[in-house]
């Protein structure tokens, strides 16, 4: 059954949606407006730690299909290291490490 369902894999859909169809199961996921980001807190997408010097990830990618969490200092260092980053006053702009959408963070210095 799995092998047959894998032929229906569509690249325009989320992997979760494709897996649900291929396996014939429904995975739990938050519905829009029912949960806050804090309910689904996770580790930083850069350092993979939940806490960094006692702080939890406080910056999130705004792209609907990403929503990855980051510690501000980790994201600042990541973006600042990119050759394509833009710095304006106290903000650094660049691409999200996971979805490549624009993301920004205030300078930690």
TrEMBL record:
GO terms for biological process: interstrand cross-link repair; protein monoubiquitination. GO terms for molecular function: ubiquitin protein ligase activity. It comes from the Eukaryota. GO terms for cellular component: Fanconi anaemia nuclear complex. InterPro entries: Fancl, FANCL_C, Znf_RING/FYVE/PHD. Residues 43-107 form the FANCL C-terminal domain. This is FANCL C-terminal domain-containing protein.
């Amino acid at each position: 059954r799995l092998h047959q369902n894998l032929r229906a894999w569509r690249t325009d859909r989320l992997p979760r949606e494709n897996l649900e169809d291929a396996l014939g199961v429904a995975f739990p996921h938050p519905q829009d407006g029912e949960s806050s980001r804090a309910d689904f807190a996770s580790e930083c997408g850069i350092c993979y730690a939940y806490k960094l010097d006692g702080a939890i990830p406080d910056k999130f990618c705004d792209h609907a299909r990403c929503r990855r969490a980051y510690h501000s200092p980790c994201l600042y260092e990541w973006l600042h290291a990119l050759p394509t980053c833009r710095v304006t006053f106290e903000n650094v702009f660049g691409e999200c490490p996971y979805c490549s959408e624009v993301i920004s963070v205030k300078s930690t210095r």
